[in-house]
Amino acid sequence: MGEPVCSVLSQDEVVEAIRVLSTANWNRLRRAAIVFCRARPIEADDLIQETFARAIDGSRNCPRNVDIVRFLAQAMRSIASSTTKVLSRQPEFRAAPLFGDDGLAFDPPDGRPTAEQQAISKEEVAEIRRATLDLFQDDLTAQVLVEGMMEGMDGEDQRATTGLSKVGFASKRRFVRRRLDKAPFDGRMP
Description:
Elements: H1 11-19, H2 23-37, H3 44-57, H4 68-89, H5 115-134, H6 140-151, H7 155-162, H8 166-182
Helix pairs in contact: 1-3, 2-3, 2-4, 3-4, 5-6, 6-7, 6-8
């Protein structure tokens, strides 16, 4: 009767898992951070750093049965979302008119995205979506899988939609993952 196995990774295990991330996994995390930061008041590098800090300090715990990349990506999504929510809950600061020597008043900038920024963000998302689907023009089943992933469908629903067996579904997902990993990365998405 040894020590009970902890259901989450220890701080040392998290540090080691981050330290040995492959280049492909770093690219996946970077892409995820870029997507999660769109139209949000946080930069991708800051989001990655904050996610690592929370994973290491124990405020975010990685279950043993979850892949570290999946855990970090989900934590990034949550942190980016909560950053937006926190800022939206804060009352808007309006300085009382303070006139300086030049008679001009200080009017702080509004940190919320403008309608133009929101439209640009939607266009960028549509462009990324289109470029990703274009990677699979030669394989309709893979294209359906990718669309399902982008829509947040779970695996069983995707498998039912494509009509693939469990083995065929796993094989097709590996194919999709490998093609995405090989796609050129220009700082945005494929």
